[in-house]
Amino acid sequence: EEDVTLHEIYMHLAAECALPAGVADTFEQKEKELEIRYSFARQSGMQLYKLAQSCGKRIVLISDMYLEEDAVKAVLQKNGYEGYEALFLSSKERKLKYSGELYLLALKALGIRAGEIIHIGNNKEGDISSAEAVGIEGGVLPSAVDVFTHRGEGLYTGDAFQDISCGSHNLFDRHS
Q1: Which residues are 169's β-sheet partners?
Q2: Residue 60 forms beta bridges with which residues?
């Protein structure tokens, strides 16, 4: 199997650290609660999502994620991501995007060819290179951190932070 679940991570932690009974379960539940509470939709991602919906596109979510499906669905619902056709999670399917296997599983389950979809993500390896390796076109939506710190790997990420400075030091110049 290529991936693990949050529960398996905590069971391993409990065994390695000899935690008292129930402590790992309490930590696991708290982590799920915090993930749901502090996960928010990015405006750019939501705009793209709504554009795809308004164009009548099939929307399928594919994620390398250790959280179980119920927690991921709670995050999606909380943030207004509704109406998607399917959700493929590495923790449920035990396959990773990085290896390409999660993409292949999704294609088979949906009954479509790789050339019929575009995968949009922010991770060059897992979202773009791995998708393209199985014939899926990859599109980049840079992460907020990459945009903020100008690490868009040659991609246009907007000019909003280009001239932000603090006194004589540019906040994003690591050499200042």
Answers
A1: 166
A2: 86
Dist CA 15 CA 40 (whole Å): 33
E strand residue ranges, the chain: 60-63, 86-89, 118-121, 137-140, 165-166, 169-170
- The separation between CA 79 and the C-alpha centre of its own chain, rounded to angstroms, equals 14
pTM of the model: 0.82
State how far the Cα of 164 lies from the Cα of 20, in Å rounded to an integer.
49
Residues 6+ apart with CB under 8 A from 44: 141
- 3-state secondary structure at position 46: helix
The type of residue at 69 is E
pLDDT tens digits for range 14-56? 999 999 989 999 999 999 999 999 999 988 889 989 999 999 9
Structure tokens at 22: 């129930």
The distance between the two most distant Cα atoms of the chain, rounded to a whole number of Å, is 57
